[in-house]
Amino acid sequence: MVRVGLLGCGTVGSGVVKLLEQNHELISRRSGCPIVLKKVLERDAAKCLALGLPLNMVAGSLDEIVDDPEIDIVVELIGGEEPAFTYITTAMQKGKHVVTANKDLIAIRGKELFEIAGENNVDFYFEASVAGGIPVIYALKQALAANNIKAVVGILNGTTNYILTKMSQEGQDFKEVLAQAQELGYAESDPTADVEGLDAARKIAILSSIAFNSRLTLSDVHVEGITGITASDIEYARELGYSVKLLAIATEEDGQMQARVHPAFIPKNHPLAAVNDVYNAVFIQGDAVGDIMLYGRGAGQMPTASAVVGDIIEISRNLSQNYVTRLGCTCYEDKKILNMGQLSSQFYIRLLVNDRPGVLAGIAGVFGNNNVSIAAVVQKTSTGDQAELIMITHRVLESDLQDALTVLRGMSIVGEIGSVIRVEEFVR
Ligand SMILES: NC(=O)c1ccc[n+]([C@@H]2O[C@H](COP(=O)([O-])OP(=O)(O)OC[C@H]3O[C@@H](n4cnc5c(N)ncnc54)[C@H](OP(=O)(O)O)[C@@H]3O)[C@@H](O)[C@H]2O)c1
């Protein structure tokens, strides 16, 4: 029998309690032994009682769980950096295997956690931390282990994908759709971590470290959110044959890696363009497998519990076969991390300029002087003495584009640089 101690009985923790109960028979058969929840640490005991757990299962302190010699696996689902880090490391030091869904912690302190797990000879699993119910960590670490992974491109945040989907379907602006998403419970009252791209950044930091076997942390990820995307950007994207998505992208070439989160135009016929509403997906390019895409629910009580319980089952199998740390840290290389200026992309640029002869030539000259070559220009609307220009560049160096934009911002003929959005043709 494998006994579990649960820390946190909130959304995901409650899902784990329900799933262990609901599918007890098949989980036990697949694990090779019964899996039993022994104790739960939760600030509000009423949450445990509401799930039908007896009061004597509610622990009064962490020690009651980590000092219980019968408990094999500690499942951390309280979230945040502290006290989660201290609780996890204490459990490991007391010989407990650990499962967590805590992306905030792994994206910043993953290395320390793996080292402490290694020192204490315990398993550390975290499948639910990246894409909820989508088993992408398992796919990268195990099923795709034979591949050189070239790129991992994810739609990793359900809230922003819901907002962009609604903006696209209903032609509404960001603020309107965000307010609706908050009413429906798809966005937090403080949506900053989602709409500014931070949540997706934590997840791509974790995925890129696994895909390329080299540690990359949250501070290495270039992050831009979706707050500047307008209904007209989405409409122009559609006219040009693209969808707008918040992408989390990790790439590796010649031993150099890079991770970023930003809105992007992607071709309408790319499989990621069909990922709508709160759904998530991860598109992976491997040298043997080619292109594959995993799709599903990236959050939510039962999808996330599915991944957490999958990890508990995996550790239970290890225990029943007397294996430990079979699948530990896979960051055994130290690759160079490129900065954004060194990357090249195509760009969509929306500008408001003075509507008079010679202006277009002046703007084209600035781009040309900075090695930015323009693939297409469309003049959309004229209002009074200003015209809206849409430009698509060829693939250009990011630093060259930024230099050109700096010059344009200082020119009197340029009223406003509305949007600058990368066009990701490479994922076609
Ligand atoms: N929700 C999802 O869909 C989802 C998806 C993927 C990953 N995750 C990750 O899963 C983890 C849990 O998320 P969640 O949505 O389940 O959060 P949640 O609903 O806020 O649950 C956390 C629970 O832990 C309790 N708690 C917090 N600190 C505690 C402490 N020191 N001692 C005892 N209990 C404590 C909280 O009680 P109070 O409410 O009283 O603070 C709450 O009941 C997070 O790391 C999150 O990032 C969540």
Task: Provide the number of structural domains.
Answer: 3
Structural category: alpha/beta
Unreliable spans: none
Mean pLDDT: 94
Provide the CATH top-level class of the largest domain: Alpha Beta
How many angstroms separate the termini? 48 Å
The CATH topology of the largest domain = Dihydrodipicolinate Reductase, domain 2
Number of strands: 18
**Distinct helical segment count:** 16
Helix content: 25-40%
The gyration radius over C-alpha positions equals 24 Å
CATH level-4 homologous superfamily of the largest domain: Dihydrodipicolinate Reductase, domain 2
Largest sheet: 12 strands, mixed
User: How much of the sequence is in beta strands?
Assistant: 25-35%
Ions, cofactors and other ligands present here are: NADP nicotinamide-adenine-dinucleotide phosphate
The assigned CATH architecture of the largest domain is 2-Layer Sandwich
Q: What this model shows, in words?
A:
With 428 residues, the chain is α/β, with parallel strands linked by helices. Helices cover 38% and strands 28% of the residues. It has three domains: 2-133 and 301-320, NAD(P)-binding Rossmann-like Domain (Rossmann fold), CATH 3.40.50; 143-297, Dihydrodipicolinate Reductase, domain 2, CATH 3.30.360.10; 340-427, Alpha-Beta Plaits, CATH 3.30.70.260. It has helices at residues 11-22, 24-31, 45-49, 62-66, 84-93, 103-119, 128-131, 136-143, 158-170, 174-183, 192-195, 198-212, 231-240, 301-320, 359-369, 398-409; strands spanning 2-7, 35-41, 58-59, 71-76, 97-100, 124-125, 149-155, 222-223, 242-253, 256-267, 279-286, 290-297, 336-337, 344-354, 374-383, 386-393, 396-397, 414-423. Strands 7, 8, 9, 10, 11, 12, 13, 14, 15, 16, 17 and 18 form a twelve-stranded mixed sheet that branches. Strand 11 (279-286) and strand 12 form a beta hairpin. The chain is elongated and about 80 Å long. The protein starts with a strand and ends in a 5-residue tail after the last strand. 44% of the residues are buried.
